[in-house]
Design brief:
- It is a single chain.
- The protein has twelve helices and 19 strands.
- The N and C termini lie far apart (70 Å).
- Strands 2-8-9-1-10-12-11-13 form an eight-stranded mixed beta sheet.
- α1 packs parallel to α3 (109-117) and α2 packs parallel to α5 (141-151).
- The chain has helices at 45-52, 95-106, 109-117, 126-129, 141-151, 202-215, 264-273, 342-347, 357-360, 362-371, 374-383, 392-404; strands spanning 5-9, 20-22, 30-34, 56-59, 68-69, 90-91, 119-122, 168-174, 177-183, 220-224, 230-235, 243-247, 291-292, 297-303, 310-316, 322-329, 407-413, 419-426, 442-449.
- The chain is 25% helix and 23% strand.
- The relative contact order is 0.14.
- It has 450 residues and is an alpha/beta fold.
Length: 450
């Protein structure tokens, strides 16, 4: 008898409400998924998704960008960054604006064709929740939940319309050959092993691993979004068999899209240079980093006729061509299987948060070292001289490092009276006392004056 394939969406396997069953439907053999779709941007990727002809499409969050993003501004009436910041960079939209953006996304021709031919399910993230990084305190969460469920064509009698939150699960196929999709949002819809998501919640992550082990569930893997690039990671020492996490992000929003084409190599180098203990590196990768920073979607194909059952899992580009992929036998995702070699376990049993500090933060150190070079400072002085020019590129780098590496950006007056920017790396090293008896909270990496 074939075993259950469990796909975890939104990275949570906790107490779930009653599952929606589709067991009378044909076998589920093709699943597509994606995230981060700006409704105002062109979305040609739907042509490739429709060509793949999925039976189910899964939204992984940021299905629209409903909040309003202000530009980086140091000076002026509304300052979104810097020592005189007086307004938040992101603000929520009104109900009518959220509704308009959902309607715009729902009526994109390519997505309309998909809805006519596939079952669409999914969860949300922060921008479709209503506000960047908002939590349970967000006042519009209930009305925005209703808008999301309308966007997903959730039945009016669905339990999701009566509960707090959009968690749910689905079972597709017939007994013995089933796919169970468990969808929830807890902590983040970002990747399971990524430093910016579950890596910051080790107790919760370990509790999830323990739940998979104790429930003796085989065939579990994860899909995720949020981070604006695609990759596949693997962790071998949690459930008795390898746990794969397939990240697809985004359908329109991608890290390489913010830079001109000649500079895309910089993003690829940084992706390669960023430490990753669990990224799957194989011959199926288009780039050496085995990440993909352009618009993409995820594709899962299940061959139920093979013995054992075969899974082909890929991240595909805007033309539908694979850029990252892995072929898995369902027997590999079973704790009792002896084919999980010890050598593989040793190779991918270290989480990124367990790396030495200097390795974990080497990208930040490299970038700050580059920014501190005199040649770059001369260029920065000419463009960031408190004039009307906006230092968007420089400040974007600092803000990204601030969130990713726990870096503190401080602004202070220099002896000359000019404004300076100082970046301090927050560390998890033991606290020490300085000469002034103040606790040492980090390492000063760079200061810039203009």
């Amino acid at each position: 008898m074939e075993r259950l394939v469990a796909v975890i969406v939104g990275l949570t396997l906790v107490l779930i409400g009653k599952a929606a069953s589709y067991s009378g439907h044909p076998l589920l053999s093709r699943i597509a998924f994606g995230s981060c779709a700006n409704q105002s941007a062109p979305q040609p990727i739907w042509d490739a998704i429709n060509k793949f002809d999925p039976q189910v499409f899964i939204w992984l969050g940021d299905n629209i960008y409903g909040d309003i993003r202000r530009p980086f501004k140091i000076l002026g009436k509304e300052r979104t960054i810097g020592p005189w910041k007086n307004v938040p960079r992101f603000i929520p939209s009104s109900h009518s604006q959220m509704l308009s953006r959902y309607n715009m996304a729902k009526n994109i021709p390519g997505y309309s064709r998909l809805r006519a031919n596939a079952k669409v399910i999914g969860t949300w993230d922060d921008h479709d929740y209503g506000l960047n990084d908002a939590g349970k305190e967000f006042p519009a969460k209930t009305t925005n939940q209703r808008l999301l469920l309308d966007f997903l064509d959730e039945p009016l009698h669905s339990p999701r319309r009566k509960q707090a939150g959009v968690y749910t699960s689905y079972t597709f196929g017939s007994p013995g050959k089933q796919v169970k999709v468990i969808s929830n949002l807890s902590a983040t819809t970002g990747p399971l092993f990524y430093m910016e998501s579950w890596g910051r919640f080790p107790k919760e992550r370990d509790r999830l691993f323990k739940l998979i082990r104790d429930s003796k569930r085989d065939g579990v893997f994860f899909i995720s979004g949020d981070v604006h690039f695609g990759e596949i990671t693997r962790y071998d020492c949690a459930a008795g068999y390898p746990l794969y996490d397939i990240t697809s992000s985004g359908l329109t929003q991608a890290v390489e899209e913010v830079l001109p084409s000649p500079l895309h190599f910089i993003v690829r180098f940084l992706a390669w240079f960023t430490p990753s203990t669990m990224r799957v590196i194989n011959q199926n990768c288009r780039y050496r980093s085995c990440t993909y920073g352009k618009p993409n979607f995820g594709a899962i194909e299940i061959d139920w006729d093979a013995f054992p059952v075969k899974l082909k899992i890929e991240v595909r580009d805007i033309n539908g061509l694979p850029v990252i992929g892995v072929d898995i036998s369902l027997s590999e995702l079973q704790a009792w299987n002896s084919t999980n070699k010890a050598g593989q376990d040793r190779r991918q049993c270290s989480l990124e948060v367990m790396l030495p500090w200097i390795v974990r933060h080497r990208l930040a150190i490299l970038i700050y070292a580059v920014l501190a070079r005199k040649q770059f400072l001369m260029l920065m002085v000419s463009s960031l001289n408190l004039s009307s020019h906006q230092p968007s590129f420089f400040l974007s780098i600092l803000e990204a490092l601030k969130s990713f590496y726990h870096t503190k950006i401080s602004w202070r007056k220099q002896d000359s009276g000019k404004l300076g920017i100082c970046a301090v790396m927050q560390t998890d090293m033991p606290s020490k006392k300085c000469k002034n008896n103040k606790p040492k909270t980090g390492i000063l990496l760079a200061c810039f004056r203009y």
